[in-house]
């Protein structure tokens, strides 16, 4: 295979919000490349809808400490509190900076950034919902992605669009030496020798059948690092967003409830009043999703199969829907042939967000063990990373915050490091290049008859069925054995396309390999955690167990190929764990 | 379930001398999207079919293509709305790289040529947000929706005949900044836009407005850019 060799000081993998925000810090300071398997503006940051929280107090009294408290409580006390404090404190400057970059936030009558309510965000430690989410209609993520890309264009950032990173190489002392990427247009390999790499590859929700995630969210970054011996943190914590479009999983923003929307069961009852009397429909997502599926289990689901609930916007003024929720109203019209101003919207929980991922410290430096040992030159930010600011359950809007705050911190740190670090040895990437070449050759020359799509859909159905909102030892053990079986069948995958040009048959096969690895880690960590916390709920262990489980999981693959689950303590702070009521 | 027949233009310039149509018959569900039918082909019948896609609900802009003669995003177009004989071709006016995948480099070059970022002196460190009234914000709301899918630009007959014309999408971005009360580069933007390869290239065919999956009033935006140039700004 043709291979091209490049040399940079710093390489950013992924061009969503975290990658682009990091690029703004690095470009101009060190020789930086941004590698993305998509054109940057296709990144899934652009699908985020509702807003980005920061205690600006433009509309109501607020403080970043309240925001930090909500984040810790929302995360069911698995949040590392110093990280949450950094995020919530820096949120204010981060929003202002985005405005200075040109982001078109909605405005208050006096011209300041407008704010609205969002799930789990409260005034004064849970008294009542607070207006904290800064937003641009219901396309806040779109505007963040566009604005950050515009700033990168203005700065002349070097992009390698439609290059997919498949492997990473380390030097003799464990320091970063480079990455290997596959160019979609030509099928050529590109080896980027570099002192520093920041992964910002986003989530991996495509291991589930019903998901809000893009087809391309396959966890490439975390899977590559897992294969190179690094651990992944808190993989058992995956968020199921309450309001996915029934069957499709397409996201209907929590902003719909922030604007006054109500969840109803088949009897028309506002059932969240029973589960969260104070904040009702604006309870955190894990609680709402569980409440919804509890309604379904108890026979109060809607529809012929009694398997969905309703989102009710019919009482909102039509002009409010037009002005504040235009995109989601359009999704409902397109996919459900329903008019949200007059009809109830069928919804179900949808796999949405990975709280876990590549373990990092608060400077986005990747750490390799429970002691926090930094991998020199390696960084991660955004959904693919685990700082941990989201703990066991992320609050709505905090993902957009996470990407800009930790994208920036990672970019600053990486630029400093890359400016001083020695150049990597030229030979350090040879092994990764040869292995990637061989992996591609194996797939394109395979005579196997197993179809990628068949394995993928079996994986997705199994994960949605057995490793979602409710889990048991039995369901997880079954999922584990299914994944093991699918992994062995994956060895016999064959693809139709033997060509080199835009061979999506090949890239989908490679991506399926990543998803299988990550699904295996998720299930292993979920099986090991015999308690319920945040997004991880075990029917057979329904209570939170602070005495034994105030710790983050670290899953890694040993040299024998088996996964091992280790742990590291949660970094506490001023908020002591208490019962999570809303 | 029902059956649809897809006629898809296939072309690999490294192998084929010219494009050819290939027909696939696939089973689809009642509410399936055109994208679902394309996936059915790639996943179960012919893995060599190349098309871009990502979010699958109309916000990432990857899967613009010509469906039964109209520029559409395959992920927001339901099969029941286009019928059971579906002809799918790559967007016109950009070089085809393979099948439905076109070369977007020229499109993004043209995007960059209008300097699509806010031109404004950064406020001093420590300052709060710049003020902008809801009315000022509303002035350019429509053109902030652009997802750079290129459906508009590749529907434009002027663009088909002259690819030095920046095209509707670049002009939409120009509008988004020209009418932003915070932007301080009106004269500079007018200089860039005041020419036959920019704002004056438009022949008001309205194809772009019809093509836009985000329902942006593209032709109107271009017209507003022209008036602004004539007025010399506010």
Instruction: Name the helicity range of chain B.
Output: 25-40%
Query: Average pLDDT across residues of chain B?
Result: 97
The largest sheet of chain B is:
5 strands, mixed
The stretches of 5 or more residues of chain B where confidence is low (pLDDT under 50) are none
Query: What shape does the CA trace of chain B take?
Result: elongated
Question: Regions of chain A with pLDDT < 50 over 5+ consecutive residues?
Answer: none
In one word, what is the shape of chain A?
globular
Taking the sheet with the most strands of chain A, its summary is: 8 strands, mixed
Query: Gyration radius of chain B, to the nearest Å?
Result: 20 Å
- Assembly of the depicted chains: heterodimer
The class by helix and strand makeup of chain B works out as: alpha+beta
Number of alpha- plus pi-helical segments of chain B: 9
**Residue fraction in strands of chain A:** 15-25%
CATH topology of the largest domain in chain B: Fumarate Reductase Iron-sulfur Protein, Chain B, domain 2
- Spatial strand sequence of the major β-sheet of chain B: 2-1-5-3-4
Number of domains of chain B: 2
Summed up:
Chain A has 582 residues and is an alpha/beta fold. Chain A has helices at 17-26, 64-74, 81-101, 140-154, 220-227, 255-258, 272-275, 285-297, 318-324, 326-336, 398-420, 430-445, 452-466, 473-490, 504-528, 546-549, and strands at residues 3-13, 32-36, 52-53, 115-123, 128-134, 158-161, 163-170, 176-183, 189-199, 232-233, 238-245, 262-264, 309-312, 345-354, 358-359, 365-367, 374-380, 385-386, 551-557, 563-569.
């Amino acid at each position: 295979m043709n291979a091209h060799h490049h040399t940079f000081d710093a390489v950013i993998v992924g061009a969503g919000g975290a990658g682009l925000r990091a690029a703004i810090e690095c470009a101009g300071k060190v020789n930086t490349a941004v590698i993305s398997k998509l054109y940057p503006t296709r990144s899934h940051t652009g699908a985020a809808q509702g807003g980005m929280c920061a205690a600006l107090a433009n509309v109501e009294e607020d403080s970043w400490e309240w925001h930090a408290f909500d984040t810790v409580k929302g995360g069911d006390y698995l949040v590392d509190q110093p990280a949450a404090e950094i995020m919530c404190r820096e949120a204010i400057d981060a929003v202002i900076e985005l405005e200075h970059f040109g982001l078109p936030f909605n405005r208050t009558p006096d011209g300041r950034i407008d704010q609205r309510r969002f799930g789990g965000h409260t005034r004064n430690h849970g008294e009542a919902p607070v207006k904290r989410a800064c937003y641009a209609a219901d396309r806040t993520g779109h505007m963040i992605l566009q604005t950050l890309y515009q700033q990168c264009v203005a700065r002349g950032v070097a992009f390698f669009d439609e290059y997919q990173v498949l492997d990473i190489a380390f030097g003799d002392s464990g320091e970063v030496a480079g990455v290997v990427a596959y160019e979609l247009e030509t099928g050529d390999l590109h080896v980027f020798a570099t002192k520093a790499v920041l992964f910002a590859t986003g989530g991996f929700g495509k291991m589930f059948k019903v998901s809000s995630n893009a087809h391309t969210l396959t966890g490439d970054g975390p899977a590559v690092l897992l294969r190179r011996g690094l651990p992944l943190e808190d993989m058992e914590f995956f968020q199921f967003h309450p309001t996915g479009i029934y069957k499709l999983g397409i996201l209907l923003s929590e902003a719909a409830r922030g604007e006054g929307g109500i969840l109803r069961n088949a009897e028309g009852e506002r059932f969240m009043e029973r589960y969260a009397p104070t904040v009702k429909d604006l309870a955190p997502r894990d609680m709402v999703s569980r409440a919804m599926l509890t309604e379904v289990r108890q026979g109060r689901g809607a529809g012929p199969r009694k398997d969905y609930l309703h989102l009710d916007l019919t009482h909102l003024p039509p002009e409010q829907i037009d002005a504040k929720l235009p995109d989601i109203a359009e999704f409902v019209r397109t996919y459900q042939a329903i008019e949200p101003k007059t009809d109830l919207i069928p919804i179900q929980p949808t796999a949405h967000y990975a709280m876990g991922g590549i373990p990092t410290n608060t400077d986005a430096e990747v750490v390799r063990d429970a002691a926090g040992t930094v991998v020199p030159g390696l960084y991660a930010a955004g959904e693919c990373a685990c700082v941990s600011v989201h703990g066991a359950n992320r609050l709505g809007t905090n993902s957009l915050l996470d990407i800009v705050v930790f994208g920036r911190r990672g970019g600053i740190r990486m630029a400093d490091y890359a400016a001083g670090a020695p150049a990597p040895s030229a030979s350090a990437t040879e092994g990764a290049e040869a292995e990637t070449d061989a992996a591609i050759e194996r797939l394109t020359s395979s005579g196997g008859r197993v179809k990628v799509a068949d394995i993928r859909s079996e994986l997705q159905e199994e994960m949605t069925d057995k490793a979602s909102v409710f889990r048991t030892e039995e369901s997880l053990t079954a999922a584990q054995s299914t994944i093991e079986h699918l992994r062995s069948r994956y060895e016999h995958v064959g693809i139709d396309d033997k060509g080199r040009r835009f061979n999506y048959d090949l890239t989908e096969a490679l991506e399926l390999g990543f998803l299988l690895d990550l699904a295996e880690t998720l299930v292993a960590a979920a099986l090991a955690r015999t308690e319920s916390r945040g997004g991880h709920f075990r029917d057979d262990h329904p209570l939170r167990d602070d005495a034994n489980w105030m710790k983050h999981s670290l899953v890694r693959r040993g040299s024998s190929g088996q996964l091992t689950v280790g742990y590291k303590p949660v970094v506490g702070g001023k908020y002591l764990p208490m019962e999570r009521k809303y | 379930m029902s059956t649809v027949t897809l006629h898809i233009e296939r072309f690999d310039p490294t192998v084929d001398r010219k494009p050819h149509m290939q027909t696939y018959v696939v089973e689809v569900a009642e509410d399936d999207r055109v994208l679902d039918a394309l996936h059915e082909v790639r996943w179960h019948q012919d893995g060599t079919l190349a098309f871009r896609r990502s979010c699958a609900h109309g916000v990432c802009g990857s899967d613009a293509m010509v469906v039964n003669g109209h520029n559409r995003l395959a992920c927001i177009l339901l099969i029941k709305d286009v019928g059971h004989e579906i002809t799918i071709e790559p967007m016109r006016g950009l070089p085809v790289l393979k099948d439905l995948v076109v070369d977007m480099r020229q499109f993004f070059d043209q995007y960059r040529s209008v300097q699509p970022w806010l031109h404004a002196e950064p406020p001093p460190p420590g300052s709060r947000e710049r003020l902008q009234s809801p009315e000022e914000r509303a002035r350019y709301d429509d053109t902030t929706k652009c997802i750079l899918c290129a459906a508009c630009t590749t529907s434009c007959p002027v663009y088909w005949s002259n690819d030095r014309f920046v095209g509707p999408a670049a002009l939409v971005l120009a509008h988004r900044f020209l009418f932003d009360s915070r932007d301080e580069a009106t004269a500079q933007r007018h200089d860039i836009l005041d020419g036959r390869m920019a704002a004056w290239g438009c022949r008001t065919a309205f194809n772009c407005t019809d093509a836009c999956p985000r329902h942006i009033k593209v032709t109107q935006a271009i017209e507003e850019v022209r008036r602004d140039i004539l007025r010399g700004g506010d």
